[in-house]
Design brief:
The chain is α/β, with parallel strands linked by helices. About 55% of the residues lie in helices and about 10% in strands. The chain contains 27 helices and eleven strands.
Length: about 550
């Protein structure tokens, strides 16, 4: 006896067997019970989500002699004939290979004859978007006013290609991708029924790899079981069969990229090649890993959005603290472009190596993403210095035009600032201490507060505004309108009080045209010690 693939053997034969499409199933059941059956249906959705299965169940249900709660009994002569493919009342057409006008004309001729048994003649047209324009036009009149005993069920994975004239004549049902939990539960149910020994972790990986398609999940399970027949199917076995990579590899790769360790990245990729891993799948899985990191950094309900163990979630949280959102989004963009290129590439490994070099050597590129990543790295380095704020460094680098090396150095004295040609202002020592405390961490403060604050306060500098008061100077008017609100300023004030124990008030102003943003503030004591030979402006 020939072997039947799992997805064919376990195809749902009644509505209760369908998983993950509850709203559609309930609607069709109610139509059966109330006998409010439409003449044309359009089932839309990605592959393997149950479109054809539900179409066949519905075709049996409308013809069943003894339907049960809207589902076919699958025991009467009509149901058995349809299941066996003997019935002339249910016609399945593959529009990919029968897409011409003459094929539709055959249907128009056939619908003139009532069913020989049962109540309805049901035409299931799969991949209907493949029909030619002429075929669609030939179908329109019959689709709009078919005989009372004819039902059309059109199935497609690309609803955008269906003419509006056809869409308006059908009841449309959108099939959603199945969740990992739904697929994993079904795989466990079928594995137990088939006597297949398999780890739960392996099933969940198969469910994830199926990308929302139950048929794909069953095909993958079939493939893995065939390779490891008669033994326990483990997570590692599944990775071997599918050419996939364990998530620990992605953790190593990400840490190597963050540390700019190009050589280590190449070694990891070399290991994947030696192990025979599928490089396209490797790239897609790494994109998903980066996506999980981004979700962790930007959302609150992480446990429900990331389906992983507490141990993996803890590791992911640790890595999330090592990288900022902008850099993470650049990584995702680079690898997403790579994923599209690999589809038709001959030298996949070379393209991946180039992408890894782009991630670890952003200075080799001149696009905005790379520049932002480089600035982020510079800010983190400058934050360790006590006397220089990242914002001041950015402004000085922009004016001097020579990058970091031409900027203000750590521990710059009054004389150093004067010789560098910087504008100097003397203020009381207490005000200077408050200013330096917040100014040195200003970039870190705006990043940690996140939300609208981070982009709006990116090109700002701080200046003293009296006792226990600082003024935020905006270079951009649009950002000024966002940042000047009491809500934004109050949020920063509360953060400073919680993190630094300082009750400081903040206000905002817009920088004037041509205003210098490289002011160096010094205390009165420093002024008195270094007043000789230095041009100094005294502020009241």
């Amino acid at each position: 006896m020939s072997y039947t693939a799992l997805y064919r053997k376990w195809r749902p034969i009644q509505f209760g067997d369908v998983k993950g499409q509850d709203s559609i199933v309930q609607t069709l059941r109610n139509q059966m019970i109330s006998q409010r059956i439409a003449h044309a249906y359009l089932f839309c959705g990605t592959r393997g989500t149950g479109k054809t299965s539900i179409a066949k169940i519905f075709a049996r249900a409308v013809n069943c002699e003894r339907p049960v709660d809207g589902s076919p009994c699958n025991e009467c002569e009509t149901c058995r004939g349809i299941l066996a493919g003997r019935s002339m009342n249910v016609v399945e057409i593959d529009a990919a290979s029968n897409n011409g006008v003459e094929n539709i004309r055959e249907i128009r001729e056939q619908v003139q004859y009532p069913p020989t048994e049962g109540h309805y003649r049901v035409y299931i047209i799969d991949e209907v978007h493949m029909l030619s324009t002429g075929a669609f036009n030939a179908l329109l009149k019959t689709l709009e006013e078919p005989p009372s005993y004819v039902i059309f069920i059109l199935a497609t994975t690309e609803a955008n290609k269906i003419p509006v004239t056809v869409l308006s004549r059908c009841q449309r049902y959108d099939f959603k991708r199945l969740t990992v939990d739904t697929i994993a539960a079904r795989l466990r149910e079928l594995s137990d029924a088939e006597g297949i020994l398999v780890e739960e972790k392996a099933l969940r990986y198969l469910a994830k790899a199926a990308d929302g398609a139950m048929r794909d999940a069953l095909s993958l399970l079939d493939q893995c079981v065939a390779f490891h027949y008669g033994t326990l199917l483990t997570y590692d076995n599944v990775l071997d069969v599918l050419g996939a990579v364990d998530t620990s590899v992605f953790s190593r790769l990400l840490r190597a990229v963050i540390g700019d360790e190009t050589t280590e990245c190449m070694r990891i990729l070399e290991d994947m090649v030696i192990q025979g891993r599928e490089l396209g799948q490797f790239v897609n899985d790494f994109i998903w890993y980066l996506r999980n990191l981004l979700v962790l950094k930007t959302t609150d309900d992480v446990e429900n959005m990331l389906e992983m163990s507490a141990e993996n979630l803890s590791q992911l949280a640790e890595e999330a603290g090592m990288i900022d959102e902008n850099t993470l989004m650049r990584y995702i963009r680079v690898f997403s472009e790579l994923s599209g290129q690999l589809r038709y590439a001959v030298q996949k490994r070379v393209l991946i190596e180039v992408a890894l070099i782009r991630l670890t050597r952003p200075q080799m590129e001149q696009n905005l993403d790379s520049i932002l990543q480089r600035l982020t790295v510079l800010e983190e380095k400058v934050e360790k210095n006590a006397d220089v704020s990242p914002d001041m460094l950015r402004q000085l680098a922009a004016q001097i035009g020579s990058g970091v090396e031409g900027g203000v150095q750590s521990g710059m004295t009054v004389a150093d600032a004067g010789s560098a040609g910087l504008r100097q202002i003397s203020i009381p020592k207490a005000e200077l201490e408050d200013l330096n405390l917040i100014r040195q961490d200003w970039g870190k403060i705006t990043r940690e507060l996140g939300g609208a604050i981070r982009p709006a306060f990116r090109n700002t500098v701080l200046e003293p505004a009296g006792d226990s008061c600082l003024c935020i100077v905006f270079a951009d008017e649009g950002n000024y309108q966002i940042g000047r609100t009491a809500e934004r300023l109050g949020e920063i004030e509360r953060y400073i009080e919680e993190q630094y124990g300082k009750e400081l008030s903040l206000k905002a102003r817009l920088a004037g045209n041509g205003e210098r943003m490289d002011t160096v503030y010094v205390s009165d004591e420093d002024l008195s010690r270094n007043i000789q030979g230095v041009e100094i402006e005294i502020e009241d």
